[in-house]
User: Fold this.
Amino acid sequence: MIQRRKSKQIEIGGVKIGADAPISVQSMTNTDTRDVKSTLKQINNMAEYGCELVRLAILNDDAAQAVKEIKKLSPIPLIADIHFDYRLAIKCIENGIDALRINPGNIGKEENIKKVVSLAKTNNIPIRIGINGGSLEKDIEAMNIPLHEKMVMSALRHVKILEDNDFDKIKISLKSSDVMTTIQAYREISEKVEYPLHLGVTEAGTYTGGIIKSAVGLGTLLAEGIGDTIRVSLTDSPVEEVKAGFSILKALGLRQKGINFVSCPTCGRTQINLIKLAKEVEKRLEGFDKPLTIAVMGCAVNGPGEAKHADYGIAGGINEGYIFKKGQIIKKVCEDKLLDEFVNLIQTENV
Ligand code: SF4
Assistant:
């Protein structure tokens, strides 16, 4: 059982983050935020896969204006991602945004910071300080210290600005595209502040490489109890980010959502097309919400025994397969009917 780091709790549009709240999965749209229809379509799609919070890039005034319409129909809370322009932050708050990602130190004049912070406070809007290892303040960048220390220093500087303005609904991220730097930065900040942490490895890459980097970076931190909400960053569909996020949490036993899928690597004992079958079973049960463990194993000699913890399983034979429940074989089915029979059984027994 993972002992979570002690942290404060904030709430974004009803989703609690920090302390004992479940670690939430969030992602970011990659549509043009001004295109309300496409953005909502993508948000709905992400929400179907369990996304709990969604961030939108607010590039200009029209995007801040679109927040109003998106907010009316979005099934999940919205976070505005803003760089530098305090007026966009104010407009997003006025249009019903649930949280902001803006670094107060980048806003500029003191009076403008005060305007944003005081409006955020009145409207109960948390602010995420989002540090990116590639875009630090020039004076910090010039220091002769390791990158993760620079990132922490930068984060603490922004934290101080918010605290000096009597604001504490803070969430922090310290992302680097380098996994070890990310891990070290989060470890260090986790000992210095009690604010909830948003985990992510930034610019992680395309599908496979990105998932591996995120799983290693986020997984290491989560296993140490660090992290309150996560975003897997992939050069791919945000839905894939959401799926990967839940897979990381499920692998650590931190969330139980949908199928926990188990399959063997196959070996010389495998006599059916198990790789294809495993992929098809996983795809057919993708949206299934019950927290079941499903196993697809290559042979009846070792399969049912090795996967006896699974609620349902398949063990391959010669042009046929055995369906088992909790390690006990209940049925023998020919290979071409195996997929349908297996999926139907799970669906009818778990309505
Ligand atoms: S379950 Fe059977 S087929 Fe799969 S790896 Fe183990 S021995 Fe090989």
Q: What stands out?
A: The domain at 10-251 is CATH 3.20.20.20 (TIM Barrel). The chain has two domains: 10-251, 260-349. DSSP finds twelve helices and 15 strands in the chain. Residues 277 and 339 are 7 Å apart (CA to CA).
